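Risk mitigation, structural track. In case the binding assays with cytidine-5'-monophosphate fail to produce interpretable data, a predicted complex structure has been prepared as a fallback.
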Amino acid sequence: MTPPPDSSDPTALPEQARAVAIVPAAGRGERLGFGVPKALVPVRGTALLTHAVRGLLNAGCVRHVVVAAPPSEVESTAALLRTEGLAADVVPGGADRTESVRLALRHATKVIPDARVVLVHDAARSFTPAEVIRAVVAAVAAGAPAVVPVLPMADTVKQVDFGGTVLATPDRAALRVVQTPQGFDLDTLTRAYAEAGDSATDDAGLVEKIGIPVATVPGHAYAMKITTPFDLAIAEFILSREEAQ
Ligand code: C5P
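Fallback model:
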């Protein structure tokens, strides 16, 4: 009899249990001030998206990557990734993030019909360590329908009204900061996107809306979302440390 796969080591998983990763990068947000969409902002000469896709493929538990790019940038994004030797499909994104994930998910299920585990990953979390990606895939492979990496809150958080007056102080011990990749059993994510309507700031939020429990695994400081010039400076630091190792 074949022994069951060792889900604590996702790099040893059979092909079908390895993940298909979706990277929504179809936004045109230029808040970082480089005059290009955020996913194409360079860190040490290489686009955030390229770093993110490389991190997914190098984690050893991702079998395929699908990137959603702005419709006019599909060819250039595909060429960028190809130049870096990264095998990823690039599809046109939609009007908002949710639609981009939906379109990429549809493509993923077409090209990898036996996919069971899906990751949704922010291109802006470009330096997420392999151990986080593996922990998410391992938890889904072990039977969790939805998994998010989280960190404890370092700061106290206040709930305020529209005028900025404090309404409440939630117990910090019960709060977590959520990162990506978020991992799902394919049927769960497909159902969440079909049933939960269109609004959620993260994919796990859609799964919560349909009443399916979302598990957590430890995140990592390096999985931070790069949104400001300050974050970019930290990203340069992370990369220089990685390259020094
Ligand atoms: O604009 P916002 O910060 O909400 O975008 C979050 C993520 O969703 C970004 O990675 C962005 O590229 C992606 N996105 C997308 N398709 C859109 C809009 C945003 O894939 N139409």
